[in-house]
Amino acid sequence: MSVPPVPPVPRVEVLPVGGLPEVEPGADLAEIIAKAGEFEDGDILLVTSKVVSKAEGRILAAADREAAVDAETVRVVARRGRARIVENRNGLVMAAAGVDASNTAPGTVLLLPEDPDGSARRLRARLQELTGRRLAVLLTDTFGRPWRTGLTDVAIGAAGLSVLLDHRGRTDAHGNRLELTVTAVADELAAAADLVKGKTTGTPVAVVRGLGDLVTAEDGDGVRPLVRPAADDMFRLGTSEALREAVTLRRTVRSFTAEPVDPAAVHRAVAAAVTAPAPHHTTPWRFVLLETPEVRERLLDAMLAAWQRDLRELDGWDEQRIARRTARGEVLRAAPYLVVPCLVMDGSHAYPDPRRAAAEREMFTVAIGAAVQNLLVTLAGEGYGSAWVSSTMFCRDTVRAVLDLPDGWDPMGAVAVGRPAEAPRHRPAREAGAFVAVR
């Protein structure tokens, strides 16, 4: 099979635009740039966002930079001491919301342009008017990268350029079909331009020449296509923030879709569950996984019969009242997967008096509670909803008989697992003060 010819590689130049004066608020930045350089059709101008911010008056007198960061932040992604990675109003995730105390007068900070894409469009239109050339404009700022040391420039605003090049469906030089390749061309251009702009040379503008085919007549969609939606972001939080969010955003889910639960995800959750603390270096947890509808139905029918019998014979309730109460158990029937956590007292100490014997069991009960919490939080991290229901604790003999469990396994409720049928309602944060006693 013949290999198709490789297309010629374009000659690309990256040129600094020098001689720009200090930019003051209200300055016509496009006129300053137009006077400083000579441009050709198809040139791509890379402009450091700081000079755009200065021209737009985004200078803030701020004795406390952190207060300025607070004002620009919509979500904290990660925090280590005073250092913060945050999301700003434009969806950009970056250190300190892009608030910069460098290259500005003492006692002031620079904020990012309020609308970087809008700034790029206005700058492009004015530059094309002044130069008569077909141009594209990218606004850039300095970012760190997850998993990588060092900084690089990326695009935060764009006009006249598609920021992504989608190669999917094409073939490479060997005829292999490309399935996943989407190139962040705007960020590649920003990084290349920074090689000639530098951080300390006072050269805030560069030109990339030789890629005129990338320049579009329309302004385009800006940088929004570069911003990964939170739902698709596998690394949307730092470690401690992710742990806290997993705990605080976990909800009791009472309505599930019919989508099957991946058993491997449950096994991963169990593996996390059994890392819980336990007394005497024991492992007092067992998890019974009910993966087939037949087993779930058999258990729930037996539990329902036991519940009805208790309400009828021990509480003296009539059938109508019993039906209303037992309807609460429908959350277990509606779930596509059930987990029955069990407590075992293997390794527990035996005491002759009731006081210490009760304390010993309470220690083990706390351990199974910690394990169940680990299970629920890990399931939430896997994208599954859950509901812990205590009903198996009221009919342990019935559960052991149906599931053929050893006598020493004490069922400690049941956990319904599945994909939530609806988004959980907002739950206001709870302050710790009401639950704390300081001595």
From TrEMBL:
* EC number(s) stated in the UniProt entry for this protein: 6.3.2.31
Residues spanning the membrane: none
Q: What is this protein called?
A: Coenzyme F420-0:L-glutamate ligase
A Pfam family cross-referenced in the UniProt record is: F420_ligase
Which GO molecular function, any one, fits this protein according to its record? oxidoreductase activity
Write the record's keywords in alphabetical order, separated by commas. Answer: GTP-binding, Ligase, Magnesium, Manganese, Metal-binding, Multifunctional enzyme, Nucleotide-binding, Oxidoreductase, Potassium
What positions does the domain Nitroreductase occupy? Answer: 250-419
Organism, by scientific name, is Kitasatospora camelliae
* Coenzyme F420:L-glutamate ligase-like domain residues: 20-210
**Kind of enzyme, top EC level?**
ligase
Instruction: Look up keyword Oxidoreductase and say if it applies.
Output: yes
InterPro entries xref list: F420-0_g-glutamyl_ligase, F420-0_gamma-glut_ligase-dom, F420_FbiB_C, FbiB, Nitroreductase, Nitroreductase-like
